[in-house]
User: What shape does this take?
Amino acid sequence: MVNRRYGHSQHLEQIIEQRATAHVISPCQHDEVIESWLQHICQEAFEVPSISWNDNLLEYGDSLTFLNFYLDLSHAIGRQLPWVTTTPTIARLASIIRNEQVIESGEQIVVRPATLDDAEAVCALLQRGFPHINDPAIWNRLFDYPWERLPPTYGFVLTADQIVVGYLGLIYASRTINGKRGIMCNMSSWYVEPAYRGWGGAMLSEVLAHDPSLTYTALTAAALPKAMIKVMEFTDSIDTSIVLPPLLHVSTLGKRPQITYDPEQMRQHLNEDERLILDDHAKTDCLHVLIRDGDRYAYLVVKRRPYRLRSWIQVNASKVLYCSNPEVFIDYLEWIKLSVMLRQSSIAMVVSGHWFNQPPQGVKVDSHVLLKSSVFEPRDLDMLYSELCLLPV
Assistant: This one.
């Protein structure tokens, strides 16, 4: 059961526990005790003076508030409540608690795995949700990425009377990292039409229940989705991203290494695992870089990413998603930076601090990776096989 809470949800939990103590609720009760109990809980939890039994509860709070409420209510009654498939009301929740058959009426809401048949509707939805991405065809990459031809799902859709009104993308990859093996599932491109925002918690709950054995990651979640994801027992791993501006490491300009960008030329120097990474990411927007000095080498996968310094200022930096040999990278840092930045027309390079025993000098910025896994730890993670490789995020 969920034991982490966010924001004012501790207040919700206390309210529900207090009400549960004051009113012992049995699922077999068929009078109005459960409705009255729920009404008191809802009025205090959503901080409103009055809620009727047939009011739409989604109108009294955002997705995070309703998700916390649903999880705490499940905890109070001792079992996981299923999500209703129409407008959630006190009357419908009471029927579910009593194990009664709920007669559904009105708009039918469904959360289900997305299929290839949903691609056109999902791409249109995401283009409305993220209009700053100019090329609508980019969203097709969530349904056709090079390293997983037949993924378990293509994400999850939220439908209202069979019309797609929400989507949560899932990008799968089988990984072996530091001797550990597991299936990664990177969450991406979560968007719900404004009229259905309260159903975000149902989407997230269904996604995680679909296969609890997977390793789930969220790399670019905005504030509200991040809060909802943390509620679902994700670890919030705070790493240090290091911004490396040009000419800060001129002391490494001694001996010039060989720097290769041609995948065919670098292939012969890579080991089996690195060749697999090269092949899996060949058709993405990533830049592959091989730095060599004799028998020593480092293989990098780099993505040119936008970074917003202010609401009106956006710049491009070269984000290193993978580095096979941090020691070689450090030894030739300035050569690498200048070469990659020139090739990508970027103003800086960005690396993960946990790669290095002694991180290079630079501007340190906290970055968050949300992780839910029984296999991998935060320090095992790189940024490969993710939305960062597929989308302009």
Remarks:
- The two ends are 33 Å apart (CA to CA).
- The mean pLDDT is 87.
- The chain has three domains: 9-97, 109-238, 246-361.
- Residues 63-77 form the longest helix (15 residues).
